[in-house]
């Protein structure tokens, strides 16, 4: 059964809400994330690795701001094209912040914080857009998007230099393109998928799942569309582009990866195989029982018994 086309009047209203409230959300959450960055910039959380949730804050900051010959020496982007995509925006922001700051190191930190804040704010806006096109009212979409933006994980991993927030930006961009359906431009889903894979090669897994879902939807709405060849061809091309991006990053930033791309693929397959083996032998039922039905000892029970 074909999916009905969106009503033109409803689509016009959604575009109006997207442009108005979306801009407000972008401004508000960029300021919020950048303020958090300013608060943490001179603390141990920002200047050392592994202080909060194992965050490699100092390493990511250094790899994004170091000169080209030293970029990636701290390990950021060793199995991705992260530096290839994000070092140029950081350099542009650094030029702008240099005119406002006399300290070169401070300008570099401000540039990285600007990029982080924009990524987090755009992620919130994409979620708002996704919920809006999924049928929620404007204020419900704003509320749920704000819950994500104000969550501890989103706040910490946006205020502190980390790579995960950029992967979330790519994935939410894909979901937004899927929610818009036929109203989305042909390149939106592909661009978001490419960006997500360049941020991390592990994003190939959720990208493949979303690509299959989108192909099945197009197959149901278009009789001439063949989902299997389209998905296989798209994922094959995307994998080749991801591998090519990793090789190009290694060529431009020699210290960004001391591991061959084929070794990365081999280690990834080994990790997936080990995860599959552990999942097969893990007693999930007993684990769930331990989590939900385990009776914890009451406080002072031992003392009461001894009396």
- In whole angstroms, the N-to-C terminal distance is 71 Å
Overall mean pLDDT stands at: 79
Query: How many strand segments?
Result: 0
Give the helix proportion (percent range): over 70%
CA radius of gyration is 23 Å
Largest sheet: none
Q: Which regions have little confidence, pLDDT < 50, spanning 5+ residues?
A: 1-5, 287-307
**Percentage beta strand:** under 5%
Question: What is the approximate shape?
Answer: globular
H and E string: HHHHHHHHHHHHHH
Count of helical stretches: 14
What structural category do the secondary elements indicate? Answer: mainly alpha
Characteristic key phrases:
single chain, 307 residues, mainly alpha, disordered N terminus
Description:
With 307 residues, the protein is mainly alpha-helical. It contains 14 helices and no strands. 36% of the residues are buried.
In terms of topology, how is this protein built?
Layout: H1 8-40, H2 44-47, H3 57-65, H4 82-98, H5 104-133, H6 138-150, H7 152-159, H8 164-180, H9 186-199, H10 204-221, H11 227-252, H12 261-281, H13 284-293, H14 301-306
Helix pairs in contact: 1-5, 1-6, 1-7, 4-5, 5-6, 5-7, 5-8, 8-9, 8-10, 9-11, 10-11
Task: Give a quick precis of the structure.
The protein is mainly α. 74% of the residues lie in helices and 0% in strands.
